[in-house]
């Protein structure tokens, strides 16, 4: 959702060549070579343009947005269970409707913030699911072109079914808890910039998204800000696709984002543990990655150890 304002003179000075991801230039018909710029040419140029101001803006917004109290979330067994069940339910609904990955991250972020706030009443079992429906509804309204009716969101083994007006009241409570600042930075916010910075194919971003979608419900990731999670995911994908040339990119990512290497390594370790043997989530020449949230989640749940990684 972040807006980018690229400068024409800012071109990458360190292009990395990954066999599976490198962008090849396409030729243009001679009939368009007489001073006119084609639509494809504009898109091609955009793929090579990046601006450090994009990252500065994202990092500034990241510091300003609400963050979950990690100690409260990790130490409270009831919150861990509620979050795990709610986000797994969200992912099933997202899979059913083919929502964008950003919708999943926003909904999970809203929910995690809300259940650690004073507005959340733990003694009411129905409130957790109502909050999940409301958070998913808000996220889908921000990100999706076609949004289902509130009644249609309550699918896939919903323990409770709520009237639309009840969900709308909960939406207002969630919005007020976040002070109506819902344009959150997520790990996905960083992928496009580095795809262009390193002149990588768009499949790089999709591979990073595919790695993170199945681990959203893991409570351990609440400890890390979006920039760290993004850096760790990119590190994981780069090492899988081209381990011999990944180190320089990893170092540049950490430097540009101003991150502590040990912190990124810790998050990377959790990603490796959570993903486990699900190598089909990483794009390669020999194996294509799922291109939608539905495909990612189906691939994850179909693996031998899928459910084990979701238990808290």
TrEMBL record:
<dbReference type="Pfam" id="PF02984">
    <property type="entry name" value="Cyclin_C"/>
</dbReference>
<dbReference type="InterPro" id="IPR004367">
    <property type="entry name" value="Cyclin_C-dom"/>
</dbReference>
<dbReference type="InterPro" id="IPR036915">
    <property type="entry name" value="Cyclin-like_sf"/>
</dbReference>
<dbReference type="InterPro" id="IPR039361">
    <property type="entry name" value="Cyclin"/>
</dbReference>
<keyword id="KW-0195">Cyclin</keyword>
<dbReference type="Pfam" id="PF00134">
    <property type="entry name" value="Cyclin_N"/>
</dbReference>
<comment type="similarity">
    <text>Belongs to the cyclin family. Cyclin D subfamily.</text>
</comment>
<dbReference type="InterPro" id="IPR013763">
    <property type="entry name" value="Cyclin-like_dom"/>
</dbReference>
<dbReference type="GO" id="GO:0051301">
    <property type="term" value="P:cell division"/>
</dbReference>
<feature type="domain" description="Cyclin-like">
    <location>
        <begin position="88"/>
        <end position="176"/>
    </location>
</feature>
<feature type="domain" description="Cyclin C-terminal">
    <location>
        <begin position="185"/>
        <end position="305"/>
    </location>
</feature>
<dbReference type="InterPro" id="IPR006671">
    <property type="entry name" value="Cyclin_N"/>
</dbReference>
<keyword id="KW-0131">Cell cycle</keyword>
<protein>
    <recommendedName>
        <fullName>Cyclin N-terminal domain-containing protein</fullName>
    </recommendedName>
</protein>
<keyword id="KW-0132">Cell division</keyword>
């Amino acid at each position: 959702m972040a807006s980018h304002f690229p400068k024409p003179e800012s071109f990458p000075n360190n292009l990395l060549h990954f066999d599976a991801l490198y962008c090849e230039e396409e030729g243009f018909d001679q009939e368009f070579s007489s001073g006119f710029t084609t639509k494809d040419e504009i898109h091609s140029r955009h793929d090579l343009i990046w601006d450090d101001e994009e990252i500065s803006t994202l990092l500034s917004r990241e510091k300003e947005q609400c963050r979950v109290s990690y100690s409260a979330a990790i130490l409270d067994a009831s919150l861990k269970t509620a979050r795990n069940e709610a986000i797994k339910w969200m992912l099933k609904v997202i899979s059913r409707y083919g929502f964008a990955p950003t919708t999943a991250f926003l909904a999970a972020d809203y929910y995690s913030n809300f259940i650690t706030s004073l507005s959340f009443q733990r003694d009411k079992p129905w409130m957790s699911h109502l909050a999940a429906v409301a958070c998913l509804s808000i996220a889908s309204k921000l990100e999706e072109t076609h949004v289902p009716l509130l009644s249609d969101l309550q699918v896939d083994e919903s323990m409770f079914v709520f009237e639309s007006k009840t969900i709308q009241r909960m939406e207002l409570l969630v919005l007020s808890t976040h002070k109506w600042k819902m344009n959150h930075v997520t790990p996905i916010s960083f992928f496009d910039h580095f795809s262009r910075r390193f002149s990588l194919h768009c499949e790089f971003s999709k591979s990073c998204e595919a790695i993170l979608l199945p681990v959203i419900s893991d409570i351990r990731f609440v400890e890390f800000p979006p920039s760290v999670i993004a850096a760790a995911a990119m590190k994981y994908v780069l090492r899988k696709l081209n381990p011999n040339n990944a180190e320089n990119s990893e170092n540049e990512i950490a430097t540009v984002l101003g991150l502590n290497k040990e912190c990124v390594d810790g998050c990377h370790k959790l990603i490796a543990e959570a993903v486990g043997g699900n190598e089909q989530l990483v794009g390669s020449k020999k194996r294509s990655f799922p291109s939608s949230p539905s495909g990612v989640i189906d691939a994850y749940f179909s693996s031998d150890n899928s459910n084990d990684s979701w238990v808290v």
